[in-house]
Inverse folding.
């Protein structure tokens, strides 16, 4: 997905917003966002910090389901989500 890029702040190129592949950035923002972070879409956001507090199998299943639900809401076609290793969550798919 081509979109504007953010690196601590908006990036500009030749006086305009810098556009580039932003799928990874969008997924990252979606995972970190808490519900209510996006005022136009108050139910959007995984709030991954809430799931990382516990390391139980049930928590991992809930996290996996929430990631899938939120990505699909954002029109991301999910092929694979693996939260076995919370330090290296794997998400495969495309916009």
């Amino acid at each position: 997905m081509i979109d504007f890029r953010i690196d601590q702040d908006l990036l500009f190129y030749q006086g305009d917003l810098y556009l580039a592949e932003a799928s990874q950035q969008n997924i990252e923002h979606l995972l970190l966002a808490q519900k209510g972070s996006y005022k136009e879409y108050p139910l959007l956001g995984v709030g991954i910090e809430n799931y990382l507090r516990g390391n139980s199998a049930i928590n991992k299943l809930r996290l996996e389901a929430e990631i899938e639900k939120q990505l699909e809401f954002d029109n991301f076609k999910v092929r694979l989500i693996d939260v076995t290793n919370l330090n290296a969550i794997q998400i495969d798919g495309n916009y």
Observations:
- The beta strands are 2-4, 12-13, 16-17, 19-21, 77-82, 90-94.
